[in-house]
Amino acid sequence: MRGFPTSFHLGPLVFHTYGFGLAIAAYVAYLYARRRLERRGIDVTRFGVFTGWLLVAALVGARAAHVATNWSYYSSSPVRWLEVWQGGLASFGGIGAALVVGLWLVRRWWPGVPLTAFTDALVPALVAGWALGRVLGPQFMVAGGGHLTHSWIGLAYQGQPGKRVPVPLIQGAEDGTLWLLLLYLERRGWGRVRGIVTGVAMTLWGLVRTFDEHFLLGQESHSGSIGVQLAGLVLAAAGIATLVVHRPRHGADGPSAPTAPSAPLGPPTG
Fold first, then answer.
1. What does the DSSP 8-state code read for residue 4?
2. I need a surface site. Which of 78, 136, 207, 215 has the fewest CB within 10 A?
3. Which residue pairs from 151-158 have beta carbons closer than 8 angstroms and sit at least 24 positions apart in sequence?
4. Distance separating alpha carbons of residues 116 and 260, to the nearest angstrom
5. What's the total number of domains in the chain?
6. What DSSP line would sit under 189-211, residue for residue?
7. 172 and 131 in contact (C-beta within 8 Å)?
8. Percent of the chain having pLDDT more than 90?
9. Res. 255: pLDDT tops 70
10. CB 59 within 8 A of CB 94
11. Does any domain span residue 175?
């Protein structure tokens, strides 16, 4: 955002403001997820290491996806592949890599915990962390805005001429609303039906991310933008499949069925 420093120096070192914002969001999400898992009786002894592996996988996957979808720029200089500090991380690449690693580790370290019980506890924390990360991260990076706009909502971003649609703030509001919806579902008892919270989050987040990319961000219609839209639709389809598989069966108990404890949990308070 223009007028706010996107980086600062400490001696010879350069620190990017959005990086600190993302680190804060990741730490809050970690504390929140740990609390939710503990409240559901899931052992969190290895959760710190689990989170570390997810972060590494997400960083590698996000960078690899960005390089692949901008190959014409990176093909001539492999050194650029590693220059993460220059920007360039594709969210769905990170999600895909972290998902593969996460599923493998859950099955290895929590073999007795149903997968959907684990994800139902984890996903709302990830959504809350993502909401906070959009506000504290891309909002303060170079070229963080969306389309040019003459609307009153437009903001000036460094590296982009004119006023831009404040996509990071919009996405933060969208993800914050999704988080509140997931908590509402838990309060209404649907969190006791394993897989419902996970499926709703996947479906809505995938659809909204596709919408945002198409209408607010994908102004050049490059391969990366198309890839994001397709990945969002795939995620939404997987979410719908999850809801179908885990829907309450005919004759079974409804939302209040005691399939698993799921007291509604807000963010960590300290």
1. S
2. 78
3. 155/1, 155/2, 156/1, 156/2, 156/3, 157/1, 157/2, 158/1, 158/2, 158/6
4. 10
5. 1
6. TGGGSTTHHHHHHHHHHHHHHHH
7. yes
8. 57
9. no
10. yes
11. yes
Map tokens 């389809």 to a residue. Answer: 237
Record the tokens describing residue 130, joined without a space.
């993502």
- Tokens 């996000």 identify what position? 62
Pair of tokens at residue 248: 């309450």
- Please report whether residue 107 resides in a domain: no
Residue 83 lies in a domain: no
Please calculate the CA angle 6-32-196 and round it to the nearest 5 degrees.
110
What integer is the mean pLDDT of 22-27? 94
What is the Cα–Cα distance from 11 to 2, expressed in whole angstroms? 24
| Backbone dihedral angles phi then psi of residue 163, each to the nearest 5 degrees | -90, 145
pLDDT reading at 259 higher than 60: no
Domain limits for position 139: 7-42+113-245
List, in sequence order, the alpha helices (H) in the chain.
17-39, 47-69, 71-74, 91-109, 115-136, 167-187, 196-212, 223-245
189: Cα separation from own chain's centroid: 25
Structure tokens at 200: 């709703």
Whole-model pTM? 0.86
Which amino acid would we find at residue 126? L
> Two tokens at 253?
């108990």
Q: Look at residue 223 in the predicted model and tell me its pLDDT.
A: 60
- Give pLDDT tens digits for 177-211: 999 999 999 999 998 999 999 999 999 999 999 99
The encoded tokens of residue 48 equal 């710190």
- CA dist 188 and 177 (Å) reads 16
Residue 158 binned pLDDT confidence (cut-offs 50, 70, 90): confident
